[in-house]
Each structure stands twice: as C-alpha cells, then as structure tokens.
Design goal:
- The chain is α/β, with parallel strands linked by helices.
- It has three domains: 134 residues, P-loop containing nucleotide triphosphate hydrolases (Rossmann fold, 3-Layer(aba) Sandwich); 100 residues, no CATH class; 35 residues.
- The chain is 45% helix and 19% strand.
- The strands form two sheets. A six-stranded mixed sheet has the order 5-6-7-3-8-9, sandwiched between helices.
- Helix 7 links the parallel strand 6 and strand 7.
- The structure holds adenosine-5'-triphosphate and magnesium ion (MG).
- Magnesium ion binds next to helix 1.
Length: 289
C-alpha cells in the first residue's frame, strides 16, 4: 500500500535517509523511532505528499485518504464541535451540496420564478439519503466524544475554537484529524499537548482505528500499546524495520515521557496535600493564639 524503493531523503545538504526500502501494508500500526533530528518528521512529510524523494521512488495506492494533524492554529469563527466535525471532509462536502440543492428548491418555489424543476427535489432527497448513509446525523456526537476523550468539558463544545489556549487548539486539531475518515493516519508527537488521561484515551482509540497508522512519539508506552511494528530511522542510512520492543533502541538516552507524566502527577498531588496540611497547621497555630 505504501512502498519506498531505494529512497533518499535530504534536507538541505544533509542526507537523512539513504537507499531505504520498505513496504507498509493496509491496517498496519507502525511506530517510527530514532534519535532527535534523524528525519522522522521528514519521512512523514514524504508520506503526506509534501516532499518528494531525492532519489528512488515512493508509491502509495491510488485514492488513499490520509489524515494528519494541522500544525497551524485554527483560523475560523467555528465552535469547537463544528471545527472538529469539519474534519470529516465527505460530510462537509455533502453538507455544502445539500445547502446548494435546498437553495435551488426554495428559489424555484418562489413566485414569479421559472417553473420548479422536479430534478431539484429528487437531487435533494438523494443527497439526504447519502448523508444518512455516511452517518451524518451521528457526526456531532462523534465529534463530542473525540473532544471529551481529549479532555474538553461539555461546556467547551459551543465555544469558539479560537478562544482556547494554543495547547487546547492543538488538541482540537488532533480531534479534527481523528474525525477524518482516513485510510492512513499520520501522527507526529501527538502527546505533546495532552495530559496522561488524554494519552491513555488516545492509545485505546488508536488500537481500535481500522486504518494504517504511522506514529512518531517519545512516549514509549504509547508506541508499545498502539503499534505492532517499528521502523528505525538511523542517521544517513537505510530505514530498519523491526518487530522489537521500542525500549531496546528508541532514544535510550531520552527519559520515558509516560513515566515522567505519571511522576509529575504524583508530585503535584503530594504538593497539594502538603499545602493542605500546612494550611491546617497554620490555622491551628492561629487558633492557639
Ligand atoms: N525545512 C527544512 N529545511 C532544512 N532542514 C530541515 C528542514 N526540516 C528539517 N530539517 C533538518 O533535517 C533534520 C531532520 O529533521 P526532522 O524534523 O525530520 O527530524 P526528526 O527526527 O523529526 O526530529 P525530532 O525528533 O527532533 O522531531 C534536522 O537536522 C532538521 O534540522
Ligand atoms: Mg520531528
């Protein structure tokens, strides 16, 4: 489905990947690992179609729908739930067509307009049937579930997406990418703006994702949980494909993000309980005069 044949990838004068050969098959969950700066994001840019190989050939089966997380903050007045829902491109297109057909039917009903075309009503009915078939009526609740999983509160859904902090807007971008009906999902460090609960939710979402996943992450527990195969991008060399545990080679020098997040949570709880204890002591002292 995705095939690299003798691919060379270069950024400026630097050769990142050379003579890489690998195939990724439909439905595989692939973790991409390697040291900082080795070319993991560059490899995803190739698969996204934003970059051509410097040598060799990259082929993808025709017609694949690829989803990736937008890196720019949303430029829209849409509410959070509509922004996420808009990730489903088929539905968004269909909604546009329904609006257009509805407009034509309404216009042809108006007095002094030319006689109504029977085909307009038929077209509208066909579009509504297609909308139903694609699960259009359930799209809002699907978007709301993605938002909840990624840590938004129910009250957030109707807020304009642009009013959230940068980190939360990136979460909205992630939710929008998950909303897309995709054959291939590309995620590059998706946990950067997530807390531990959201990371755990994402892991279970990815396990049930039916398409092909390419995941770059420093969270080794996420890689282990969501992926069944790993590609190692080693500096200026071929891409190695391994089935091993990412712990054995993925940035051994880097601390594990999952255990850091867990430790951070524990320390925050310890600090809060020490603060509470301190307040109790202070008020007891005050009462004692
Ligand atoms: N647009 C660009 N122009 C020139 N050099 C670039 C560009 N993008 C990346 N590079 C360089 O190419 C190398 C690989 O970058 P890339 O972002 O693919 O690595 P990475 O493995 O994703 O790194 P990280 O783990 O830090 O995310 C780096 O040395 C980087 O500085
Ligand atoms: Mg990167």
């Amino acid at each position: 489905m995705l095939t690299l044949s003798d691919v060379r990838l270069r950024r400026g004068p630097q050769v990142l990947v050379d003579a890489a050969n690998c195939s990724i098959f439909r439905g595989e969950k692939v973790g991409i690992v390697g040291r900082n700066g080795c070319g993991k994001s560059t490899l995803l840019a190739l698969i996204r179609g934003d970059l051509a190989p410097d040598a060799g050939e990259y082929r993808a089966s025709p017609g694949l729908a690829t989803a990736a997380v937008a890196q720019e903050l949303p430029e829209t007045g849409a509410t959070l739930v509509d922004y996420i829902r808009g990730g489903d491109l088929e539905l968004a297109t269909l909604e546009g067509q329904i609006d257009e057909a509805q407009h034509e039917v309404t216009a042809s009903d108006a007095p002094r307009s030319p006689a109504p075309l029977p085909s307009d009503g038929t077209r509208l009915a066909t579009l509504h049937a297609e909308y139903d078939r694609l699960g259009g009526y359930a799209a809002r609740s699907r978007a709301a579930q993605l938002a909840a999983g990624l840590g938004f509160a129910p009250d957030d859904l109707e807020q304009p997406v642009r009013q959230f902090s940068g980190g939360l807007q990136m979460r909205a971008n992630l939710a929008r990418a998950l909303m897309r009906r995709s054959d291939v999902l590309l995620l590059d460090e998706p946990t950067n703006h997530l807390d531990l609960d959201a990371v755990l939710w994402l892991e279970s979402w990815l396990k049930s994702y039916a398409g092909t996943l390419l995941l770059v992450s420093h969270d080794r527990a996420l890689l282990r949980g969501a992926c069944d195969r790993f590609l190692l991008v080693a500096e200026r060399s071929d891409i190695e494909s391994r089935l091993a545990d990412p712990d054995t080679y993925a940035g051994r020098d880097a601390p594990d993000q999952r255990s850091l997040s867990a430790r951070h949570g524990e320390l925050s709880r310890e600090i809060s309980s020490l603060e509470e204890r301190w307040l109790e002591i202070a008020s007891a002292l005050e009462a004692a005069g």
